[in-house]
Amino acid sequence: MSTSSSVDHAVIGGVVAVIVFILLCLLIVFGRYLIRHKGTYLTHEAKGSDDAPDADTAIINAEGGNSGVEDKKEYFI
């Protein structure tokens, strides 16, 4: 009966080892994915604002934005 018991322990140990190995691999792959895609999100900032000397110049010289939209006019009474 001892051979049957030792075979069962070996099978259970092998299955647990495979599951731990798969979880470890998935953790590594997921970690690399998070590191590679860190900070890659879309913003609506002015294009080319990185090379402008200050924020005002970047806004004035912005290429993108609201093209074709009329500026709102303010009337003072």
From TrEMBL:
SMART domains associated with the record: 4.1m
Residues of the Neurexin/syndecan/glycophorin C domain: 30-48
Protein topology in the membrane: Single-pass membrane protein
Stored InterPro entries: Glycophorin-C (IPR042192), Neurexin-like (IPR003585)
Compartment(s) of residence: Membrane
GO-annotated cellular components: cortical cytoskeleton; membrane
Name of this protein: Neurexin/syndecan/glycophorin C domain-containing protein
Species this chain originates from: Hippocampus comes (Tiger tail seahorse)
